[in-house]
Every structure is written in structure tokens, then in C-alpha cells.
Amino acid sequence: MAQQLAQGGLTGAAKLKAVTDLINSLTQDLSTSSLGPRERDAALDELKVYARDPRNADPIFVKEGIETLSKHAFDGSSATTSRNALRCLANCLLVKPSTRNIFVDLGYPEKASIKLTTAGVEDEFLISRIIFLTTYGTSVNLQNLIDQHHLADAILQNLTRHVKLWTGSSGSSFKAASQDPMTDMALTETAKLLFNVTHFCRQKVDSFTPAIALIVTLICQHALPQPKPLDPPLGSLVNALLTLNLASEQGAAALFPKANPAALCERLIQVLDKAVRSYPDRELDTAVLPLITALRKIYELAPAEGVQRVMQAKLLPTTKDRKKVLGKGQSLASLILRHTTNAMAPEFSKAVSHMLFELSDKDATKFVQNVGYGFASGFLFQNNVPVPESVQESFQASEGGRQRAVNAITGQFIDKETAPELPEMTDEEKEREAERLFVLFERLKSTGVMNVENPVARAAREGHLGRDVIDGKDRVEELD
């Protein structure tokens, strides 16, 4: 079936001949201008379709084919031809990783970086993706692109354009920006490129520090993707924030602007609230984990009496949560607390636990009081954090100016605890339970570990089998 219809309508030898003829025609055109503008663009458009499937398309993916496409993309005079060639190149580098080193060896990342400084939105998308792909498995010199070919300037310039689109300072409304899918696609590729460049070229990370303020603005101003708020471009922007020098003076000023120091953390917490309600467990480790990492970084750098207090108030259980056993409600604090034991998302679970511990000033006693010993104990044990003996004792928490006792294990107000509501057992059920208990105690006696009197046998002897024992009024006593 796969061979019946390939991209472009041709398969096998027919497709190979068509690809060969197109590459030869486009190569000759570079020196003789043998094709008119429409013929050239039509040839590139047809070649782009064939390049989506590398089978029977070898002439596109060898050095000569990549060089021909690169020359049309970066050395031609027509913007339309350049864009069509860029589309072909982006496809080639995506589906055939071996072409990335060919592109690098031909010296075209340098030309791509320079072209990115004058790119419109669609070219921003294509060129950013092409450079991004060259950061994997090639010898590309990112420092040279930054120092000599204006890569950092181009990325900052494009981020600035997106900020203007979303804040309306460019004369365009955010509504218009949100209705153009290419705008978000371009922003996503720029954010991904920024992340990779700063990840693989740490020595030049300070060249991108101005991007922090731009990304903060975009995170706060950009509409949240629906239904999953960390889908592109928001998730890509959060990722890009993580590799920048947030601890620098300029970075701190961008994270905590004087006008509203808590704006970014409040926005990220809003995103987290929506994310934990919309992403399935299997996606938390990839989609939502970077958001937790960002919140932890922000908390570490935040002013203690301002932003840190805001984050504690919004992410730790409140007195309202303590009306139930902690983790049983539907507040954000309850939801993330439940995820600390989520075996389906182990990395996310671990990161959330660390965040809650950090929000508790890395103090074991505060941590237990904040989340309950039931949730805290596993984290403290796994991380070799000494547990004070007093943490399992009830403590007092303030609500409305008065002190109320709290169960240290569950985190619930003691005066809100209720006995479990169990249905009354029938006589038949009591007899079955008595038989089960009899067998269990006989097995225990046979081990020789301890000498115990079987309470079921004693109940039968005393004439109240099925009543006191099953009702929980009898006690097992260890005998000498």
C-alpha cells in the first residue's frame, strides 16, 4: 500500500527520475538562469513534496542536492524562491539527519544566521528550525554564529517582535496575532532555538540575558493554549527560560519587576493549575516538569518577604484544605500533593516533592506540618533528611485568629476528623470474619514467634462469638 501512492503521486523508479530531473534543472538554473520565476518556484514546490519521504529521493539528500537547495535559499535574489528552498531544506534536515552535517560543512549556518536578522515571521519559522536542527549531531560552531554572524541579535530581535505583537505596541492587536498560526509556530521555533543554543553553548549564555524580560512578558501576556496550557508556544517559552542566567542582576530585575514582582510566579502557578487538570499522567514528566523546575528556580531567587510568601500561600495547603485529610480536595495544593506519590510520573512526582520541601524552607518539621507526615515521610527517608521525633505529634495551626489542633499524620484539623462510616455487618458476614480470624491466629501460634490466645476461640468459649470480637471490643493479649 505504501508503494502504491507516494508523496507527489509517483513511486519507485518514476519518483527517482522525477527527483533527479528536478535537481538537475535547479542546479543548472543557478548558473544559467534557465528557469523563469514561476518554473523555479514550481520545481521547488514539487521537490518539497518528494522530500517528505526519502525513499527513491536520494538526489535531494546528497551533497549536490543540499548545496543546490542552500544556494537557492540563501544566495538567490527572489524572496519567494528563497522561502520555497528553505521549506525543502527544513524537510531534508528533519527526515534525513545525515544532511545536517552536509549543510554545516557547506558553511550555510553562517548565512542562515545573517538572514535570520532580516526575516519575516515565516522565514523566522523556517530558518530558526533549520539552525535548531543543526545543533544535533553536527560540528556547527555556535559561538562563531553568535560572535561573528549575529545569531543572538537575530533571536532577540525576533522575540522583541513577538512581544510587540502580543502587547499591541507594534500597532497590531493580540487578537490578530493569535489568529495567525504562523506567528505562534515562529515563536515556538525561536524559543526552541534559544534553548538549544544556550544549552550547548554555555560560554555565551550572557549574550541572551536580555531575552529574559522578553520571555517573561510573553509568558504573562500570551493567551494560554487550549485545552493544554503548556502546548507550544508556552511550553517552549518556559523551557527557554531555564537555560538563561536568571541569577544575574538583569535577570532578577526581569523576573521580579518593581511594578509587580509576583506577576510571573502568579502566571506560572495559574498555568500549573490548568496543567495538572488537563495533562494525563503519562505526559507530566515531559510537558509539566519544566514548569515545576521554573517555579523552583524562581522561588530560590525571589525576595523572601514578597514573592516567596505569595508562592507559599498558593502552593502549600491552606486551613481550608485541612478540613479534610490533606490531598483529598480539589484545590491546586491538594492536586500537586497527590502527585508526590504518582508512580506514573516519577520525575514529576520527585520534582513536586522537592518544591514543597523548598517552600517549607527545607525544614523537616515545617515540611511535615505543611503536608502531613503521611506525604512527607517518604521524601524525608529517600533524601536522608533527619526527622525530629516530635513531627508525628499533633500541633496547633492558626485559623481566623484561633488555634486548632492538627493531626500530624494526615494534616487534618482534629475536630474535623470523623469515624469511618461502615455498613453494619450481617450475622453471616460476622461468622465468616470470625472464621478468617481464627485461621489467622492459629497460623500465628504455629510460627512460635509469640504465644497468643486465639480471641475467636476465647469468644466461642465465653459465649459471645460474632459480637464482641467482630465489633472490635476484644483485645489480643501477649502471654508469658
TrEMBL record:
The keyword Chaperone applies. Pfam families: Ric8. It comes from the Eukaryota. InterPro entries: ARM-type_fold, Gua_nucleotide_exch_fac_Ric8. Keywords: Chaperone, Guanine-nucleotide releasing factor. Belongs to the synembryn family. This is Guanine nucleotide exchange factor. It comes from Sporothrix epigloea. The lineage of its organism: Eukaryota, Fungi, Dikarya, Ascomycota, Pezizomycotina.
